[in-house]
Design a protein that fits this description.
Elements lengths: L7 E3 L2 E12 L5 H8 L8 E3 L18 E3 L3 E7 L3 E7 L10 H5 L4 E6 L8 H9 L4 E6 L9 H8 L7 E4 L4 H17 L20 H7 L3
Parallel strand pairs: 2-6, 2-7, 7-8, 8-9
Antiparallel strand pairs: 1-2, 3-4, 5-6
Helix pairs in contact: 5-6
């Protein structure tokens, strides 16, 4: 899907498709997040880790990981009666970063997943979306046995702009992931400098006055 900002008709009612990117370091939980929230069977492009990756893929903190995404994850979730989110998970290793431009094209915003055991791994994602001025939030994935830090401490460690939301999440739980996605869309709408709160944007009607804004800002 090239762009989330297009229109389609279904049963006489207008659906507003929104493209969301899920990024972060290797083994941070991107595939888990997409799988836990998707209402369709998620598309995965995972391959087994082999001896070829020894010395290339850093398994520090994720020694139990046996597979890795080599292209993307894809899922879909409807929010309200008129909005559908299409989720594109990026591959984590730097040798696949050449794909990020294509995966991010047409996106409304991005979720950067962070792991407190390997916090530095999400710096490239933060830098990428900052440079491209694509709205993003940081979701701190809570792993069993991982050090627990206050959200503000993580914000300081990542040197996040005060306007960038950060929150704890558990990528295994649908309700937690839903909160993350609502937070992102709210942030992306608030960051829209062209929105006058009146007429929705065309295409996609992504402004606060459109169906996306009405659904997300009501916390649906």
């Amino acid at each position: 899907m090239g762009s989330a900002r297009s229109k389609r008709q279904s049963g006489g009612s207008q659906l507003v498709p929104i493209k969301i990117v899920v990024a972060g370091g290797f083994g941070v939980g991107k595939t888990t997040l997409v799988s836990s929230i998707s209402e369709i069977r998620p598309l995965r492009t995972e391959e087994s880790l082999t001896q070829v990756g020894v010395g290339v893929d850093d398994l520090t903190g994720v020694t139990g990981k046996t597979t890795t995404t080599v292209a993307m994850d894809f899922g879909r979730i409807s929010m309200g009666a008129r909005m559908v989110l299409y989720l594109f998970g990026t591959p984590g290793q730097d040798r696949f970063w050449f794909m990020w431009d294509d995966l991010s094209y047409g996106a409304l915003g991005a979720v950067v997943l962070a792991d407190t055991r390997r916090l530095s791994d999400c710096f490239p994602s933060v830098d990428y979306f900052e440079r491209r001025q694509l709205p993003f939030i940081v979701a701190i994935n809570v792993f069993d046995g991982a050090p627990a830090y206050d959200v503000e401490d993580v914000r300081i460690a990542l040197d996040l702009d005060p306007a960038v939301p950060a929150l704890l999440c558990d990528a295994r739980h649908r309700s937690s992931v839903k909160e993350v996605l609502i937070t992102l869309v709210q942030h992306a709408l608030a960051a829209d400098p062209d929105d006058d709160g009146q007429a929705p944007h065309d295409p996609g009607e992504i402004g606060r006055g459109g169906p996306v804004g009405q659904v997300c800002l009501s916390g649906a």
